Amino acid sequence: MKIEFVNDWTKTYMARKGPSKVFGFDVDTRESLDSGQATEHFDKIWEDSLSSLVKHGLPCSPESVRMRLSESASGRVKDSCEHREIKVNGCLFIAQLRTSNECDELWYVSSSSPDPRTLYITFDTVVERKAFEKIADSLGLDDKELGLELVRDFMNKFRNRKLP
């Protein structure tokens, strides 16, 4: 029996903002999808892989689900529902099933213990990100090395200044 995903808001959100390893690396395009296109994109991925993975996912308790979600998301966890954990391309998700063939929530669980030494930078577009990568390559560096070098150079400018 197939599991149907019934939450249109989550379909749209995941299609636009979900992890690229699952929903596609064309982030600029995904973010500009209208509701209909986003729903269609999500439905294809749901049918191709997610539905089957959820069907065979690892059951987990509502309490453990709440502990792994943000405060706002944990408010949508229903004790009366079944919850299953799945991993897709290294990304952890938790699905909430109202019935054995109806899923109304799919939460992406980001790392809860990021390395405190790490700084993440999000470019406005993939084109901008690729341009940075190309510059790094032309300098004989990988993009992480160039990013770290730029940040350290910037920090050195302020080393002897009083900061507010």
Rg over C-alpha atoms, rounded to the nearest angstrom: 20 Å
Q: How far do the termini sit from each other? A: 62 Å
Gross morphology is: elongated
**How many helices in DSSP terms?**
8
Q: Largest sheet, described in full?
A: 5 strands, mixed
Uncertain runs are: none
Structural class: alpha+beta
Q: Strand percentage, roughly?
A: 15-25%
Number of domains: 2
User: If you average the pLDDT, what whole number results?
Assistant: 93
Strand order within the widest sheet?
1-5-4-3-2
Instruction: Compute the number of strand runs.
Output: 5
State the helicity in percent bands.
40-55%
Order of helices and strands: EHHHHEHHEEEHH
List the helices and strands and how they pair.
Blueprint: E1 4-5, H1 8-17, H2 20-23, H3 27-31, H4 35-55, E2 58-60, H5 62-68, H6 71-74, E3 82-88, E4 91-99, E5 102-109, H7 126-138, H8 143-157
Parallel strand pairs: 1-5
Antiparallel strand pairs: 2-3, 3-4, 4-5
Helix pairs in contact: 1-4
What does this structure look like?
The protein is of the alpha+beta class and 164 residues long. It has two domains: 4-109, no CATH class; 114-164. Helices cover 48% and strands 18% of the residues. Strands 1-5-4-3-2 form a five-stranded mixed sheet. Strand 4 and strand 5 (102-109) form a beta hairpin. Helix 1 packs across helix 4.
